[in-house]
Amino acid sequence: MSIKPARTRVAPSPTGHMHLATARVALYDYLLARKTGGQYILRIEDTDLKRTVPGAEQEIFDGLRWLGLQYDEGPDIGGKYGPYRQTERREIYQHYAKVLIDNGSAYPCFCAPDHLEKTRQEQMKRKENPHYDGTCRALAPDEAARRVANGEKYTVRYKMPRDGVTIAHDHLRGDIVTENKQLNDYVLLKSDGLPTYHLASVVDDHEMEITHVLRGSEWLGTFPLHVNIVRAFGWEEPTWVHLSVFLKPSGKGKLSKRDTTIAMTDGYSVFIKDMNDLGFTPEGINNWIALMGWGVAEDDIITTDQMIERFSIDSLTASPAAINFQKLDHFNATHIRLMTTGDLAARLKPYYAREGLDVDDDVLLKIIPLIRERLVTLDDCISFGGFFFKENVTPAPEELIAKGLDAKQSAEIARKSYEILSALDNINHATAEPPMRAYVESSGLNINQIFGIVRVAVTGQKVSPPLFESMEVIGREKCLQRMRNAVEILEKI
RNA sequence: GCCCCCAUCGUCUAGAGGCCCAGGACGCAACCCUUUCAAGGUUAAGACCGGAGUUCGAAUCUCCGUGGGGGCACCA
């Protein structure tokens, strides 16, 4: 691993919701920059005006911050290599497009879109690879210059060598050799004056002194083009790292929006903006995505700081990875257990608020030890601890009836339990458990039957944190009142 | 169709010629603990895609198949 400070960038397009894959690139960029003492920057690639979605950019800012991946330079915080929005760098690309035309690496193309489309159709009919037919490539430079000066609409195309090969070096895959005839005269500058990705990213990475380009492997197809452009400028190449793609949980095919809809109904999402609502933590998400495509070898539970310590682009993997939401659950739950009580309390409050529950801080602090190890997602605090903050609970009558018993018998148990508990000055684990256990012994019934009734009566639910600890937090008066209520319900059946 | 990339338990991965009859994690199963649910502990099942080479020796190198993925736009 080089000790030279790395400058990395995450360069999403504001064309939709921020995706898991973007988050992972950002994470790796962040880790590499921190590891080497370099910088990690955010660049917005908004050159496709038609696809730009309002609000998408803000979602990227928010998502990155939520994940704790604060960039050192970016559109909303500035930096000395700005601007960091490509639409604000138009002149820079136009300048460099001209440089390429002047040095014979590119040429203006005046072909109309419908002409292009027609030739493409014909080529496909002939089962040829669709590619630009080269009409304008054959134009004499001064002729082309004249037409440009005349104000004709044009694009700028890269003049791909017709023969020979391009050898592009990827850090994970080694040399990738491509025959130039497989490559196309790609458009670098569109007729609206904005660059395509190919020109923009190469120019910006150079101008912003990016040392390592981490991106998805969907760029492998145009990778040779990018390398050609860099070389046509005579620039030094960054280290290229093409990451694996994320596959659907089934492993069949890349993640798509459709999968997202399905996933959402299951309580999962591939969009960062949804994660907080679903109760996932940045720690859990980071841990999860970090390990898809990176073999850390040691502990699977790892904090961002530990990641920085261990990160190396050498141990990234090249094969596609199927996402696995069960693992997300595991990482999320584990990181929740790792949090301090105070931290967890602060994170839980919004979820209670969302349910309209008024949370008393002292109570919250007291219940955290009771619910912490039961939480998979933060919003589980409602199902495991919502009743602590409610004035009354409304147990389902059928749940108050113990297994193997009828309503009458259950009512009797509830009444007797009430008597035992009401005889106590104070209800807590130490005072309540012994007499209740004694009652179980003398009754000849199963402990689950008796404790189960009390549990449902007091918490309103069949599954809850430990009973007596919970009762202690709820308080004597409320417990007794809830027991009386249960007796009533049972007697009415 | 063409081009490129990838290929170890169901999933994520360790493994850079002998340390591997392949290790870890998730999940799954069993048991222990246990007032429910968890958590925790112990154990089990579970993989080197196939075929040729190279080598004394291959999960690791080469080639060919096969499978999977990505790309072939004035989208990124």
Helical content, roughly? 40-55%
Largest sheet: 3 strands, antiparallel
CATH architecture of the domain at 89-243: 3-Layer(aba) Sandwich
Q: What is the CATH fold-level name of the domain at 89-243?
A: Rossmann fold
Query: What is the multimeric organization of the chains shown?
Result: single chain
Just give the CATH class of the domain at 89-243.
Alpha Beta
Total DSSP E strands: 11
Q: Which strands sit side by side, in order, in the main sheet?
A: 3-4-7
The CATH superfamily of the domain at 89-243 is known as HUPs
What is the rounded Rg? 31 Å
| Computed structural class | mainly alpha
Q: Give the overall shape, derived from the CA principal axes.
A: elongated
**Beta-strand percent range:** 5-15%
Low-confidence stretches: none
Kindly report how far apart the N and C termini lie.
Answer: 72 Å
Number of helices: 21
Mean pLDDT comes to 93
Outline the structure in words.
With about 500 residues, this protein is mostly helical. Among the domains are: about 90-245, 3-Layer(aba) Sandwich (Rossmann fold), CATH 3.40.50; about 340-390; about 395-490, Arc Repressor Mutant, subunit A (Orthogonal Bundle), CATH 1.10.10.350. The protein has 21 helices and 11 strands. The protein has helices spanning about 20-35, 55-65, 90-100, 115-125, 140-150, 195-205, 225-235, 255-265, 270-275, 280-290, 305-310, 325-340, 340-355, 360-370, 380-385, 395-400, 405-420, 430-445, 445-460, 465-475, 475-490; strands at about 5-10, 40, 105-110, 155-160, 165-170, 175-180, 185-190, 210-215, 240-245, 245, 320. The protein has a 3-stranded antiparallel beta sheet. Helix 7 (about 225-235) links the parallel strand 8 and strand 9. The radius of gyration is 31 Å and the shape is elongated. The mean pLDDT is about 95. It binds one RNA strand of 76 nucleotides through helix 4, strand 6, strand 7, helix 6 and strand 11.
